[in-house]
Design a protein that fits this description.
Layout: H1 32-44, H2 55-77, H3 82-99, H4 106-112, H5 122-130
């Protein structure tokens, strides 16, 4: 019953409490276009939210994003083909569903309570360079 605590349909969200064990490694056998998408995703996703086990879902997301690129090119070359348009839309919907798991929109990041990646301390970097 949606909205009822401890019942199907009610999912509590919060901060990921699993041990941070490093970034996911690119799996072998990933296609070249998906490998490029993989690299883009790792640059854009908040590092504190990533774990090594995420490699499986990230691979699927990267392959789907590469497929969207290919389907977009094919659909642009033949805009009157309804089958191409339909498969592009279906693939884009899969990307949207899976991307929400990684917080690729502001609403997803808020819902998932992904911690901010503070990055390097600029003051410490300055002091180290001139200290």
């Amino acid at each position: 019953m949606p909205g009822a605590p401890n019942r199907t349909g009610h999912f509590a969200t919060g901060t990921d409490t699993t041990q941070a064990d490093g970034l996911p490694q690119m799996p072998p056998g990933i296609s070249a276009p998906a490998a490029a998408k993989w690299e883009q995703l790792l640059e854009q996703l908040p590092r504190p939210a990533l774990r090594s086990i995420d490699c499986h879902q990230l691979r699927i997301l990267a392959e789907l994003l590469a497929l969207v690129d290919a389907q977009t090119t094919a659909a642009a070359a033949n805009p009157t083909d309804p089958k191409l348009s339909r498969t592009l839309l279906q693939t884009a919907q899969h990307v949207h569903r899976l991307s929400s798991c990684f917080g690729l929109t502001p609403a997803d990041r808020a819902r998932l309570n992904i911690p901010e990646d503070e990055g390097p301390d600029e003051l410490q970097m300055f002091l180290a360079a001139y200290g």
